[in-house]
Amino acid sequence: MRSTDTKKKSYQKGVNKMKVTEARFIQQFIRICANGYSKGWHERNGGNLSYRMRPEEVDEVKENFKETTWQNIGASVPTLANEYFLVTGSGRYMMNVETWPEENICIIKVDETGTKFMIVWGLVAGGRPTSELPSHLMNLAVVKARTNGSYRIVYHAHCTNIIALTFVLPLEDKVFTHELWEMATECPIVFPAGVGVVPWMVPGGEEIAIATSELMKKYDIAIWAHHGIFVTGPDFDTTWGLIDTVEKSAEILVKVYSMTGGKKTQTITNDDFKKLEGPFNVKFNDEFLK
Ligand code: 13P
Ligand code: ZN
Q1: In this model, does residue 6 exceed pLDDT 70?
Q2: 205 CB under 6 A from ligand 1?
Q3: 157 CA to middle of ligand 1, Å?
Q4: pTM here?
Q5: Which of 8, 9, 119, 257 has the greatest number of beta carbons closer than 10 A?
Q6: Is the distance from the beta carbon of residue 46 to the nearest atom of ligand 1 less than 6 Å?
Q7: DSSP string covering the chain, please?
């Protein structure tokens, strides 16, 4: 039995109050922050992470919650009304989340109109949730609707090779998708719908949030030109696996360009891609195989 399960039993009996940081969902969240930092994707305060909590996870830790003041989200997300989210703090370093979670991340509640939030736990030394909260919440709203509620995570990271490619490839969904699919046989299987690209925009506001969430209606991945990447998924492992695969593929492509200027002696053809659909029980976005 995991130690968190043992603790959970004693908390259920009312013996102890479970600390928020002992809950499994928060440990998984912290692990992503730490892993992303060790990958080199979170220089300074770069990148942010959000998680739409399950009702039973809220119940598990809500004894620790304290009410604060309502603040504007800067976007409207009525389909997330009254839900709770674990998010990283603005200006906080991913490097520090594992050691000092209470100071660097927080749980927020969205109000009944979907336009305001309240911090109920964390950021104990002050501060506010990530400046990309509009993008996180709008994306979480879009993917919640698209997946019948199963998607819960949005992760933004400054992945080096993906950013490098936005200076070289045309900023088109089709070009990025096809090039990234080509770099490893597993890529089209891991992201069969493809990749969307947002042109350079000012970060941190509603405009870029709307542009990104439009792409999230179709894709699990949105690349921000000259900035980074947003990915989404149902759980921490799948979301991590997705970003790791995409960035690895971008790294191979950067190496190909570095060696040959992008000229490939041989590659995986569109006919080859189609042969993968049956054995792996996936359907690729045909738009990107023309
Ligand atoms: P925050 O520190 O506000 O999360 O911003 C970091 C970032 O990557 C902005 O795009
Ligand atoms: Zn960023």
Answers
A1: no
A2: no
A3: 9
A4: 0.95
A5: 119
A6: yes
A7: --HHHHHHHHHHTTSSPPPGGGSHHHHHHHHHHHHHHHTT--STT--EEEEE--HHHHHHHGGG------EE-SS--GGGTT-EEEEEBTT--HHHHTT-HHHHEEEEEE-TTSSEEEEEEE-TT---B-TTHHHHHHHHHHHHHHTTT---EEEEE--HHHHHHTTTS-S-HHHHHHHHHHT-TTHHHHSTT--EEEPS--SSSHHHHHHHHHHHTT-SEEEETTTEEEEEESSHHHHHHHHHHHHHHHHHHHHHHHHHTT--SS---HHHHHHHHHHHT----GGGG-
